[in-house]
Specification:
Elements lengths: L3 E10 L4 E10 L19 H14 L4 E9 L4 E9 L12 E6 L7 H14 L10 H7 L3 E6 L4 H8 L31 H4 L9 H13 L3 E6 L2 E6 L11 H17 L5 E4 H4 L8 H7 L5 E8 L9 H5 L4 H25 L2
Parallel strand pairs: 5-6, 5-7, 7-10, 8-9
Antiparallel strand pairs: 1-2, 3-4, 4-6, 8-10
Family: Belongs to the peptidase M14 family.
Cofactor: Zn(2+)
Keywords: Membrane, Transmembrane, Transmembrane helix
């Protein structure tokens, strides 16, 4: 039988929405060929290895960094989330008087690059590896009145599955998409809904990971929230579950900040705007929508820091993560610098 070509419509899901890509797959009588890229262990830590490296970093800088592990769950399913807090002279200062920023990485298990960025940012906060073109004095001044809480791997149970070889897994250890498990517009399913990707759980906050993150957000009461993903290049604000942005000055300020970051660090190539509008797909029950609508975080964002739109829909590691040293370094430098610009501009935008 002659070989033939078939066009498949493949949906792959990033931090908040589904992205359509067309993929030509060569097929003969009985086979379909896929290209699978393994994890590059020269560039990427295991999930548990990354957490241990972060704890060692914190131990070296007790004047700036502290770490805690928060646990939740039942006898059948438990989750641990490591949280690192940065504050200059934290023992003598009142954190409530400072700008408070909450960052979450690794919510989707297969997006390893996001957690590596968390380590890179923490290395800069510890003044071991500075962002490009930023001197130590400038860094110190930028962070003098800021408290930052960083969750390097929100979904450690799912990450363990990826580390074991299931490179397309994005859900947690019992098959729930943690970015569909929040209470704003929870449970609504689009026509392209795939439970292997987007299963929202049995109820809002059914998962210990989202329970921990909700309590952390409520107790910390941040001024800025960023949920960091990969899958494309994007700077997004609410809303994910509808094709609109919030009304008024706060929305305008969020958009202006994202536009500036897009110029400075994305060469204007990043998608910018609401998740539901900029991408064209709606996502329901997301963390960013909850942070904005319920926790009342004044500036709530989802950053998408990398995506390979030429990768096969079946090649999950390559689709979501840089595979070579040059691209990896570019992503680290570019986005680390963008976060420190966010730390600097945040207080101005909130005035």
């Amino acid at each position: 039988m002659a070989a033939s070509y078939h066009l498949f419509f493949i949906i792959y899901l990033s931090g908040f929405a589904a992205f359509p890509i067309f993929s030509f797959v060569y097929a003969n009588a009985n086979t379909t060929q896929h290209s699978w890229t393994p994890i590059n262990h020269h560039l990427y830590h295991s999930g548990e290895g990354l957490i241990e490296k972060i704890k060692s970093l914190v131990h070296r800088h007790p004047d700036k960094l502290t770490v805690e592990t928060i646990q939740a769950g039942t006898k059948d399913y438990k989750a641990d989330i490591t949280v690192v807090t940065y504050s200059q002279n934290w023992e003598q200062s009142d954190d409530k008087s400072k700008l408070r920023i909450l960052l979450s990485f690794g919510q989707h298990a297969r997006e390893l690059i996001s957690s590596e960025l968390a380590l890179r940012i923490l290395s800069a906060l510890g003044e071991e590896q500075f962002p490009p073109e930023m001197d130590p004095a400038s860094l110190h001044d930028t962070l003098e009145n800021v408290v930052i809480k960083i969750v390097p791997i929100e979904n450690l149970n799912g990450r363990k599955i990826v580390d074991a070889g299931e490179l397309c897994e994005r859900r947690n250890g019992r098959g729930v998409d943690l970015n569909r498990n929040w209470a704003v517009d929870w449970g609504k399913k689009e026509k392209d809904y795939d439970p292997a990707e987007e299963y929202p759980g049995t109820a809002p906050f059914s998962e210990p990971e989202t329970q921990i993150m909700r309590e952390l957000a409520v107790s910390f009461n941040p001024h800025i929230w960023v949920n960091v993903h990969s899958g494309t290049d994007g700077l997004f604000m609410p809303y994910d579950h509808k094709k609109s942005t919030p009304d008024g000055l706060p929305s305008q300020r969020m958009r202006e900040l994202l536009d500036e970051l897009n110029v400075l660090y994305c060469s204007k190539r990043c998608l910018v705007g609401s998740g539901g509008t900029a991408v064209g797909y709606l996502a329901h029950g997301t963390a960013t929508d909850y942070m904005y609508d319920v926790v009342r975080v004044p500036m709530a964002f989802t950053f998408e820091i990398y995506g390979d739109d030429k990768a096969s829909g079946a090649d999950c590691f390559k689709m979501f993560n840089p595979i070579d040293q040059t691209t990896f370094k570019r992503v680290m430098d570019q986005w680390c610098a963008s976060f420190f610009t966010l730390f600097k501009l945040g207080p101005v935008c909130l005035m």
